[in-house]
Write a structure and sequence with these properties.
By secondary structure, this protein is of the alpha/beta class. It contains 7 helices and 9 strands; from the N terminus they run βαββαβααβαββαββα. The strands form 3 sheets. A 5-stranded parallel sheet has the order 2-1-3-4-5, with helices on both faces. A two-stranded parallel sheet has the order 6-9.
């Protein structure tokens, strides 16, 4: 099966970790995989399946642009949208694009795979990326009203059995992603600020 992985051209500081894990997952099953960022008019690839990621809800326009472009280009391919925007607002997306399959939350079948950073080499934005992105955990113990992490990832669970298994060969840097700790620190700071204001 030919699988096209698409990162819409929104602003981001990090390459698409989910798509890189999906690349490894699909390749382990013998699929041919191609990755593109944004609109690519010179694509020489005929996909059976198209998987598009999404980021935050305010970055919906590049996502819609990618959906429409690749749907017109490859009308017979099965198309699926995942990521944060798709998981938070699936009804909105499905109303606009009824032909889309929507995936909510993590792709658990791909989570255990080492991300395939090689797919980034043909993309201008990411072709010199040299860092391994590693989540120390998934999910969160909190249910903060402003945060969708528990909704997307569930309760907190460790993902690292051995950090060495998640460092890509040749990478010189590691970027640890520990979002749950950030939310806990925010809660502690917020509560301390409220106590301080109460006594003053």
């Amino acid at each position: 099966m030919n699988v096209l992985l698409i990162e819409p051209e929104y602003y981001t500081k990090f390459p698409p970790l989910g798509l890189m894990k999906l690349a490894s997952y699909h390749k382990s099953r013998g699929d041919d995989v191609k990755f593109v960022r944004g609109i690519n008019n010179d694509l020489n690839f005929n996909p059976d399946k198209i998987e598009i990621t999404s980021l935050f809800t305010y970055a919906w326009q590049p996502v819609h642009k990618a959906i429409e472009f690749y749907r017109n280009r490859f009308p017979d391919a099965n198309m699926e949208l995942g990521g944060i925007y798709a998981s938070i607002m699936p009804e909105r997306v499905k109303t606009i694009y009824p032909f889309l399959s929507i995936h909510i939350g993590l792709r658990k079948e791909a989570e255990r795979y080492l991300p395939n950073y090689d797919i980034l080499k043909d993309t201008k934005k990411w072709n010199d990326w040299d860092s391994s992105l590693i989540f120390t955990s998934r999910g969160c113990v909190r249910r903060c009203p402003f945060c969708v992490v528990p909704r997307l990832e569930g309760s907190i669970s460790p993902v690292l059995s051995n950090i060495q298994n998640y460092i890509y060969p040749g990478h010189k840097r590691i970027i640890l992603l520990v979002f749950c700790l950030f939310s806990i620190f925010f809660i502690i700071f917020n509560n301390c600020w409220r106590i301080n204001n109460f006594y003053n």
